Amino acid sequence: xxxxxxxxxxxxxxxxxxxxxxxxxxxxxxxxxxxxxxxxxxxxxxxxxxxxxxxxxxxxxxxxxxxxxxxxxxxxxxxxxxxxxxxxxxxxxxxxxxxxxxxxxxxxxxxxxxxxxxxxxxxxxxxxxxxxxxxxxxxxxxxxxxxxxxxxxxxxxxxxxxxxxxxxxxxxxxxxxxxxxxxxxxxxxxxxxxxxxxxxxxxxxxxxxxxxxxxxxxxxxxxxxxxxxxxxxxxxxxxxxxxxxxxxxxxxxxxxxxxxxxxxxxxxxxxxxxxxxxxxxxxxxxxxxxxxxxxxxxxxxxxxxxxxxxxxxxxxxxxxxxxxxxxxxxxxxxxxxxxxxxxxxxxxxxxxxxxxxxxxxxxxxxxxxxxxxxxxxxxxxxxxxxxxxxxxxxxxxxxxxxxxxxxxxxxxxxxxxxxxxxxxxxxxxxxxxxxxxxxxxxxxxxxxxxxxxxxxxxxxxxxxxxxxxxxxxxxxxxxxxxxxxxxxxxxxxxxxxxxxxxxxxxxxxxxxxxxxxxxxxxxxxxxxxxxxxxxxxxxxxxxxxxxxxxxxxxxxxxxxxxxxxxxxxxxxxxxxxxxxxxxxxxxxxxxxxxxxxxxxxxxxxxxxxxxxxxxxxxxxxxxxxxx
Length: 627
Prior knowledge:
six-stranded mixed sheet; elongated; alpha/beta
């Protein structure tokens, strides 16, 4: 389910409820399945006997982390800063760039945050599905050797179905997750009834007391506590799919209470005398219902994993449109839903890393050691961007903005340092992934700018070009041509080379620039503008948002003014192809960067496929470009 919102008009309650239900299946899968492993991890890190003071302290830390990070930072603050309805770190960066505040550190912070989301995205499916299936040990002790292969099989099946799309089965995601939250809330109530005094943990004094009385152990525990908010970024990132109000309704009305109840229920079990080494989540459930709960947990974690994969596809498309990644083949898997896309290389890379993590770590407890560091660093980057947005979007004073940002910064930095302890235990994996992806983004962006500068540095004006045509008596032959170009003021280089080689030019010519704006969507009334610059020569600029995918022939066919000028159905399309070489006059890229850029340039999706050009009517003109 994917619905676009550019604004937040009042909505009927029925529609609001429907959207909130859809958000349950997309936005809250990650954070909603965290009770499977969070409290168990925190308890193991505490290294103390589970006394009432310890248990209440741990529960208080989890409770107030959910409140401060998810309810206040993301729901109350971040979600109020949107880029024409879209949220997430890339959309926030684009908004600041649009406002003229996209300095280097803003862009770099956003790129680091985006790259880290990929690293974390590989761990989320692994730890979620594995933790759900580990419940089989309680029901069938003999199943322990089969849990790992079963987890691999489930994840393999999940990635293998991606090319076919998930639009049809996606309709059940909301109801399944609604059932999941109802179930974990009911289990939590069952646990609380065994020891109601656990509700004292709502008092933050218990958490503060634990932190200040346990020294280094407190720091270790915070790394585990952070697992309860690893999906908080999704509230902001998925805002464009459903809108603020439905996500707020789902969070405050269903998800947040359910999570609090379940964590409290697990804590109450310990206070009531349960073995702290047991799987507390499944211990909450009556034995007769444990198998159905395991099945429901498996479904919930699969849905959470699907949301992560879909989010990776969506963010990749944004990065491509904004010029930070090379063109990749994007397959639309559902005509009625723009958000249903598939990007093969991203899918297979995630599959290899995710399954590799399961095989390498073998248990959710060990995976937890690698989990969280990427998210904590992403949250820190988001806080930095939010500070700039408070100043430039909300026009808050420097003092007010700094005070709010400082509060978030202290929380984020504390969790980041607590998670840095995990680096040698597996946390290096998402960091290395993020570093590689960020490097690729920076090299690609720098290379593209170098190519544009090299190609456009010897521009020829329109008047000078057509004066030369008349002087050299270059004939204008029957037919029409469309030249794709980055150049907006001068004659496209491809057009100059075409005339130089063929010594002729069609009588009707359109040069077209594709302009990706720092907004998610562009209204149809702003989609394209065309102006005549010389007899038989027009230049057009087609504008798209970073959430859109251009289909240029369809666009031109729908513009009556262009069709009145010449027949686009019979036009010949001309595109340029650059071969990257080293040489004087280049951008001075290091050799290793140039080799990486050249490799990406050779292997990126061809412009013909990216813009849906008619391949039987495309002429490609190659040139060597020094970078």
